Amino acid sequence: MRLRNELASNQRKLTVAVLKAAKMEQELEALSPFVSLDASQLDVGTDIQAQITRAVTEMVLERKKREDIEHILADVERECRHPTIVPALLQTMDEMWLDMT
Hints:
Number of helices: 4
Radius of gyration: 27 Å
Helix content: over 70%
């Protein structure tokens, strides 16, 4: 559940960043007849794009971790419902103990 909340939070942050970047680009375009921008100021979009790329990469990694953990949890839940490993192991250990005595 915590991972799902984190994923949702990261998705919200990513959406906000994309919307903020789009709004900033619109504002810059509206000001462009009045303001001249030098090359260093134009790199801001590249920085935002890099942040978005990093955020998407983090989101994909978090999603993969969540899926892996959900698979492990499903295995544990299945084993709890129908225990097969532990009783079989106990039976084997009991048989080994009887053979040793």
